[in-house]
UniProtKB/TrEMBL annotation:
Annotated keywords: Receptor, Signal
Protein name per UniProt: Tripartite-type tricarboxylate transporter receptor subunit TctC
Keyword Plastid in record: no
Nucleotide-binding recorded as keyword: no
Signal peptide: 1-21
Any single Pfam family the record assigns to this protein: TctC
Organism of this sequence: Pigmentiphaga litoralis
PANTHER family: BLR1237 PROTEIN, TRICARBOXYLATE-BINDING PROTEIN
Transmembrane segments: none
Alphabetical list of CDD domains matching this protein: PBP2_Bug_TTT
Recorded family membership: Belongs to the UPF0065 (bug) family.
Entry-linked Gene3D superfamilies: Bordetella uptake gene, domain 1, Periplasmic binding protein-like II
Amino acid sequence: MKRRTFAIAAACSALPLTWRAAQSADAYPARPVLAIVPYAVGGADTYLRPLQPALEQAHGIRLVIESVNGAGGTVGASRVKRSTADGYTLLFCGSGLMSIAPRVQPAAPVLADFVPIINLVTVPYIIATRKGSAITTLPALIDFIRQKPGALTYGSPGISTSPHLGMEALARMLGSSVTHIPYSGIATAIQGLLGGHIEAVIGAPSTLMPQIEANAIHGIALVGKDRFPLAPDIPSLAEAGIDLDVSTHFAVYAPRGTPPDVVATLARAFQDAASDPSYTKAMAGVRTRVNLMPADSLARVLADETARFGTLMSAITT
């Protein structure tokens, strides 16, 4: 009888633990969610911050954003990779970190280390030159690169980033070369341009257009097939007969092993918050186009990007 009573008591005592575990899973998120942006402050984090109020008010997700810059994004990405896969640490980064960095940085995390959640924005790139430069038009840029191999110094947000790859691709298509000056972020690259330390820079419209509109630098070309609607006065490379299209897809990822129900909760929350017209308006204010893509579409885009630039990445690193 005593043994039977003990067994019943033990079974009953386990019920609160089971209930608490289920309650904990159902209550996600029970604490703030950290989103690591693996770049310098003032860059990609500007695409994420406008979503914070809607995520908290409508979905109970208090998103804390931390910029962890270094090694072209791999420092921050590695931190997310090592984190507990419980939905409380996320990565918000450009597609180049998944498709390019692993090819040129052996220590870089790979796509298989993460679970794609949703793509938020897609960013094209603009080439700009310093004030006082003789290069003020797209034809002048093309002639300079062709006629003076290695003479054009340009800044980018870092080694193995999409802007770096785009500029190197342009030089090779013109049968020439350029000199890359990697910076710790696009903001410092722009400072280098304004200070006359480099001849050109390649970066997102959100960071370059304010300087272009202030006539502090020259907007030369959009690295793409069509003009960007949010920067319509900048000609595309296609207008000069150059078939090169480089852009970056900024998306949210979780560490591999994150529970599917948590991933689904996050995907719904980000989709809902980013679908609000206020987010589109906020992004238009920083010359950025909202491009919501679910995880499966994003995976296909990343596979295509990796394939397209594989040969070029090998050429850059040899």
